[in-house]
Specification:
Layout (H helix, E strand, L loop, with lengths): L2 H11 L4 H8 L3 H8 L7 H11 L3 H5 L9 E7 L12 E5 L7 E6 L10 E6 L9 E6 L2 E10 L2 E5 L5 E4 L3 E11 L2
Parallel strand pairs: 1-3
Antiparallel strand pairs: 1-2, 3-4, 4-9, 5-6, 5-9, 6-7, 7-8
Length: 183
């Protein structure tokens, strides 16, 4: 895949139009169209801006590095803790080779392991939790986040404030696979 194909593919994966990418990079839409149709190539400065906006290495964009071998997928960010149907307008990009429909993300201000600030937690719904995993579980039709432990046929949930719940049964919705801290 050459630069024009990679640019177009990644732009679409990120959910951006040519116009939106152009605005973020500081060029005209026609310039992005030219790059994507292989009529022109960006200078070094513009290449760096494009790679930063798309959150991808410039080496990958120009074909020097094929490290981006896995596919990228847009995963919905759930806006509230309700378990019911969601209206999703925001997405986060993840890389995985299979079943992107098993993923979702949640914005959180939880103090996780001493790390303060805004986070996006990416969950996968078909994983079985192991001791110490961060999970989201169903409690009265609301999603709650806690650390999961299993002891003597009981589920032990440890919350952000270090409170503990011991339960016989818990409906685990998904297991966290990644926590991204936002600046």
């Amino acid at each position: 895949m050459d630069f024009s194909e990679r640019l177009k593919t990644i732009r679409k994966i990120k959910g951006l139009t040519q116009k939106e990418l152009a605005e973020k990079v500081g060029v005209e839409r026609a310039t992005i169209a030219g790059y994507e149709t292989n009529r022109s190539n960006p200078n070094f400065e513009i290449l760096i801006k494009i790679s930063k906006v798309l959150n991808i290495s410039s080496d990958y964009l120009i074909g020097k590095d094929d490290h981006q071998g896995t596919k990228s997928y847009r995963v919905p960010i759930i806006k509230n803790s309700s378990i019911g149907p969601q209206q999703t307008m925001e997405y986060v990009v993840i890389e995985d080779s299979i079943d992107n429909n098993k993923y979702f993300a949640v914005r959180s201000d939880l103090n996780l392991d001493g790390i303060h600030g805004k986070k996006i937690i990416i969950f996968k719904s078909d994983l079985k939790p192991k001791n110490g995993d961060l999970i989201i579980f169903d409690e009265e039709d609301s999603g709650k986040i806690a650390r999961y432990y299993r002891e003597k046929n009981k589920t032990v949930l440890v919350f952000e404030d270090k409170t503990i719940k011991i339960l016989d049964l818990v409906k685990i919705i998904a297991v966290a696979v990644e926590v991204r801290t936002q600046l």
